[in-house]
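Summary for the steering committee. The consortium agreed at its last meeting that each partner would contribute one worked example illustrating the joint modelling workflow. Our contribution is presented below. We chose a case with several input lines so that the handling of multiple components could be demonstrated. No manual editing was applied between input and output; the record is shown as generated.
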Amino acid sequence: MSRAMLSVQIRKRFAANSAAPFVLDVQASFAPGFTVLFGPSGAGKSTLLDCIAGLQRPDAGEIRLEQDVLFDAARRIDLSPQRRDLAYVFQSLALFPHLSVGENIRFGLAELAVAEQRRRTEQIAVAFHIAKLLPRRPGELSGGEKQRVALARALVTRPRILLLDEPLTGLDAGLRRSILEDLRAWNDANSIPILYVTHNREEVDAIGEQVLTLAGGRVQESGAPRAVLDAPRSVELAQAAGFENVLRGKVIEQRLTDGVMRVALEDAACEIEIPLGSAEPGREVCVAIRGGDILLATEFPHFLSARNILPGTIESLATHGALVQVRVKAGATFLVHITPGAARSLGLAPGQLVWLVVKTHSCHLVR
Amino acid sequence: MNVEALLLSLRLSVLVSGLLLVLAVPLAYTLAFFRWPGKFLVESVVSLPLVLPPTVLGFYALLAMGPRGALGRMWQSVFGHPLSFTFAGLVIASLVYSLPFAVQPLVTSFESLDRRLLDASAVLGAGRARTFFRVILPLAWPGVLTSLVLSFAHTLGEFGVVLMVGGNLPGSTRTVSIDIYDRVQAIDYASANQTSLFLLLVCFLVLSIVYGVNRRDWSPWPAK
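What follows is the complete predicted structure of the assembly.
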């Protein structure tokens, strides 16, 4: 199998709502294997996939798969979607409702002999555990089954690039994991660039190879998921990456020898210590803290290494499945995630005095 | 009931709705899926018969088909006989008159298709023609049926245009609505009523089919 690299360098301007024209401006290369495209909605993720697929035409730039040019504005090359040899699973899946599962899968094999079509269809149906569904119509399938069919229909064409636009949204974690396993098994044998769009942090961790973050039509960062998403560098990305607390603040002082700096939050309502970053005193910054990285204490905690201990009052408690979200006013308002058991044993109630405990390194400076 | 007039009307309606389908499908396809300068002008022209009094349309059709009109002269030189007051002339005028009823349901059903299905078809390697016959047409069939049925019914019931361009020649241009008008003029209400009732029932049946199909309760595939 080829180990072709997909390189994309494109620019496309949308002036529709001319007050703030949206510009997609992306330079990136995608090695064989999974690359997760992560970012808030409206970041340009789907538009980027559409451009790679040839469904939208960039204003400038080029798209190449190793030596093969798919698009080159300067040389006026723009292969039609039919000739790009890629597969695309849309967010809506776009299964043909009037065709059976088998006919859907065979749709992309029209140029092959009928026997070969049947052989490949059966092969992929077995690999994705949908062999029994072949005579059914998409309307008779469950969500997970539809997603498997959409993947099978895409992969049976033996594409050179695979574009996946949130293909597993709305599935429970177990089902998602099992479909991802099938997909990974397929890719071990085929090894093509797979661009996987999601804004679900759990999916990023489940795929866990390479992440490219997009915000406002531009690439923010790329690298391993932990490195990129645990220290987001923009407010939008912090929110998308699951940081419940993104607080405005102003740098008060930098303590270079300790490698920390102090930041006043929300108009000097409280002060916290965060790791040293490149922001001089007086600069407006944002600080991102995960709800799960904050400890709650009902008495002032002694003998702790944590440097941020803030007194506050509980405003509200809300249970979401296996976690309780506690809203605490401690100068600024913090969202704290604890387990239902912890909430019970501490006897937490609105109006109660508590102390918030946050490690310095749980606070992330966001540009 | 004047069977000759009725058969003539049926022949006219079947011919016109069939021809219109062939004309309207490509027209609706370009209107629904492409943007081009001047498109709004074509849309206006197509819709014009909806608002224009049939007599106005019939008047200009008569001028065009007459011995001094461009269409009439052309017809005369090709076929050796004049076009006005013939069945062929009636067909041509009816095509124009019923065009919006054929085009608009098609445009609506083409436009309401999920564009991602068309994208999916393209990415899976299907060209325009394959996408049209395998995806667009099967999914837009209620629109096709509506188009066919509405242009049939509309042609069956036309009066003003026929009167202007066809005149009232038994067997070639005396359609059923003209016949009813004649009967009323002759104070033969019983006969007029028979034909009218028949037409009323036919139109009711036809519209019931259209609305029943578009409700899609008995659609052959389940809803998405």
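Residues 3-35+43-52+84-214 of chain B form a domain with the MetI-like fold fold (CATH 1.10.3720.10). Chain B has a mean pLDDT of 87.
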